Structure formats: C-alpha cells, structure tokens
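SEQUENCE, STRUCTURE TOKENS:
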Amino acid sequence: MTDHSAKTFIVTGANTGVGLETARGLARAGARVLLTVRSAKKGEAALDELRRDTGSDKLSFVILDLGSFGSIETASEKLSERCDRIDGLINNAGLGAASEGRTEDGLPLVMGVNYIGPFLLTRRLLPRLLETARQEGQARVVNVSSLAHRFARRFDPENLLPDPRPRARDAYSESKLANLLHARELARRHGGEGLHAHAVHPGFVASDFGRAEHFPGPWQLVFKATRPLQISPAKGARPSLHAALSEEAGRTNGLYWTKATPSDPYLPEDAETVQARLWAETEALIEAERGSASA
C-alpha cells in the first residue's frame, strides 16, 4: 500500500458535502490536508469534525472565495507559504445551475466560481505543484466536473461569457466542460514534468449542493423527487480520492473518471485545439478583468 503520510493536499470547498468527505478520505490516508472554506466559522466546524473522526493533527484551513481574484491571490500566497510541497490540488468547490449574480470582479457567477476561479487558483499554485512533481516524482490536480458537461452544446472557448445567456443551465454545463478541458490541457502541457491532471464525475449526490440557493423554485421539487436515487457525499468523494491517491491514476493522465473507472467524456470536435484555445482565452479574460479593476 502506498504511504501518503508525507503528502500534502489542498481541497477547495471542503467544509461540507463531497469536499468534506474528500478531505476526510485524505486525512484517513495519513496525508496533511488544507481545506479552503469561505468563513472561519465553517472552517473551524469542519476541522473539529475531521479531527474527531480521523484523529489527524495535520489539518488546517485557509479562507478562499473563488468569486474574488483578490481572495484567490491572497489564499494562494498563504497556501504556498504554509506548504513546502503540494502533492495534490482538488478543485472541488462549485455552484449549481441556477445560481445568479456576479462575482466580485463582475464575471457571471457560475462560470466565474466553477471554472475561472479554479483556473486562476491552479495557475497560482502550479509552480509549487511542479516543484513537488520534480522532487517527488509526480503531483496531481483533480477537477470535479459533472456528467452535465455533455449538455454544453453551445460551448465556445472564445465566448465563455455570452450575454444574455439563453438558459441558466447552459452556464453550469459549460463550466463543467471547461473543468474537464482544463484538466486535459494541464496534462498535455505539464504531463512531461510529472503533473497528473484528471477530471471526475462525483455522481448524483445528496448534499448541500442541491440547496435552494443553488437550485431555486422548481429545481427543489426535482431534488426531492429524486432523493432515493442520490448517493451519499462519501460515495461522491470516491472518484476524487481515486484520482488523487490511486496508483492507476498515477500511471495515466488527462482522464475523466466516474467512480473508479475511466470513462469517455463528451468532447467537442478537435478537442485538443479547443482546450488550448480555452486556456489562452481564459488567461486573456483574467488579465483583462484585472486591468479594468486597476484602471
């Protein structure tokens, strides 16, 4: 069995649901785990639960709001300062299909929090991830995507933020496809340096993710009607844990996992070209937003 006791992992959105269970699984494996949360109160509650359950004394949290470039930059600096190595980043945090509003930087909320924020966080932590990969043999990035990526029929990497958007669910589906393509492009760009990047589908999970804040109105009737089909957050965390810890995921790269099984994603034609364009356009969008904020 692989020894994970020297490893350090970061899990975003780790105070509840699949994120909390992912942190629990990593702690049980003996790893050091840094949770990112949106409030100290939630962070302390999560740490108390995890410490009682796992007995681990290698747990801490950092405040992070993926809807704020400033928060991402501050959090990434703190994470890099605290960690002399980063063996894995699990981009778990996200919003539901019907979430509305704008991020602190004026981006549409769902795409901003689900994809652009995690992209920037990963970019900021990439030097430490690659340093760990060179020294330890590999490091991993796990993006929590969704089967909903198959519904991203209008996906255009050069028009990520159409205004107006015809349907709210399109933003969610497109953000989940972007998560998947981001993992593939990370693997293509940095696989030769020891970085392994994967995307996962957690399944239809019974968690706080389905709360009215994310899925208002009629969506709540759907969630209640399908409750018997939903799986526990612990089961929903298994794909992330497999991608982060398993030897199988360490022998492969750029895959999409459901449960502990590689699956064929629904990709656009000429996916490598699309994911490269997506990367370039996302970087340009971030720099443009930063420029407008400082003007």
Summary: The mean pLDDT is 91.
